[in-house]
Amino acid sequence: MKKYLFYISQNYSFEVLRPLQNEIRRQGGEVAWFAEGANVNVSFFRPNEQVIACIAGAIAFNPFAVFVPGNMVPTFLPGLKVCIFHGFVGFKKRKKDNVNYHFIIRDCFDLYCTHGQSSTATFEALAAKHKHFQVIETGYCKMDPYFSSSLVSKKVNQKPVILFSSTFSLRMTQAPTLLPYIDKLSRHSKWKWIVTFHPKMAKETVAAYKNIQHDNLTFLETDELAPYMVEADLMLGDNSSMITDYLLLNKPVVTINNEAPTPYLHNITNPEELESAIEYALTQPDELMKEIRDFTQYTHPYTDGKSSQRVLQAVDNAATDLQKMKNKPNNFIRNLKARNKFGYWTF
C-alpha cells in the first residue's frame, strides 16, 4: 500500500486535496495530513481523516509522495515532493525581479503538476534550465468534483445568486469600498448574495460584512466552497484567486478595479456602475462567454473529472525517472530555518 502525505498550511488546502484523497483511497492507498502553523482550522478535519500532529510523526509515516498546495515544503521529509499549487496562475509579481510568484522556483519540489498551457510551457522551460525537477500536465485535482458529476448548472436561478469574494491584500481589495453598495443592493429582493473571503482577510472587514447579514445576504466561512460556486449565477470580485476557479464553470465574473483587466472579465472602475454591470453580465452576452470559453481552454482544458488520477500517474512516472534528475540545490539556510521552526534536529 502506498502512503501519501498532505502537507498543508492554509484552510483552502482542504478543498484542493480532498478529491485527490478520494482517488488515493479508491486505488487502495493511505493518506495522512500534516498541518503546519496556526492558520489551519483543525475543526475542518473529518473523523475519517488521519492527522499527524508533529513533524517527527510525518517523517515516521514515510510517505511515497508529499503533496503540497503551496510554495514550500521541508526537503528533509521523505518521499517525492509534489507541488499541485494552491490556485491558478495569477498576475502578482515579485518586486525585485518582476517574476510571477506562480513561477518562482524554491528548490523544494521534485515534480510540478501543472493545470494547462497557462502554466505548463513556462514550467517546462524552467525544468530545462534547472534540471532538478520534472513537469507533467495533469489538470487541477481541486476541480474534479465540478466535472465528475452534473454539478455545474447553466440555468440561471429564478432569483439570481451573486457570489462576492475579495483578495486579502490591503492594496488590492475592494471589499471595504463595496460594503455600502452590496449592503444596499442585497436589501432589494432582486438577487441573493453569498459573501466569502480569503482566510487572511482583515478581521475588521470580515466583521463588517458579518454585521450586514440578513435573509438575502449570507457570509460564509467554510472549507468547501464548491456547492456555493455552483449555486451562484455570477461572481463579483476584484483580484481574488477564486476568479479563475469560477470562470472554469463557464459563468460570468464582474470585477472592480482588477489589476489586469482582460476580455473574459467584465471590469468596472466605479462602484456606482455595480448594479448595471451585474445586470449586463447576468445576460451572458455572446462575446463575453466566448472569451471565457477560450480562457478556460488555455487555463484548464480538462473537464473529465480525472485530474486526480493523472496526478497519481504522474507521481509514479516521476518516481521512476527521479534518478535522471540532478540533485536539488542544498539550500542550507532555508533547511536550517525549517528545522528550527519544527525543532527537528535529527539527521
What is the name of the CATH superfamily of the largest domain? Answer: Glycogen Phosphorylase B
Helix content: 25-40%
Number of domains: 2
**Using DSSP, what is the number of strands?**
13
Cα-based radius of gyration, to the nearest Å: 21 Å
Please give the CATH architecture of the largest domain: 3-Layer(aba) Sandwich
User: How are the strands ordered across the major sheet?
Assistant: 3-2-1-4-5-6-7
Largest sheet: 7 strands, parallel
**Class of the largest domain, according to the CATH hierarchy?**
Alpha Beta
Shape: globular
What amount of the residues lies in strands? 15-25%
Structural class computed from helices and strand pairing = alpha/beta
For the termini, the CA-CA separation is: 26 Å
Q: Which series of helices and strands comes N to C?
A: EHEEHEEEHEHEHEHEHEHEEHHHH
Helical run tally: 12
What name does CATH use for the topology of the largest domain? Rossmann fold
Which residues form runs of ≥5 with pLDDT under 50?
A: none
Which whole number gives the mean pLDDT? Answer: 92
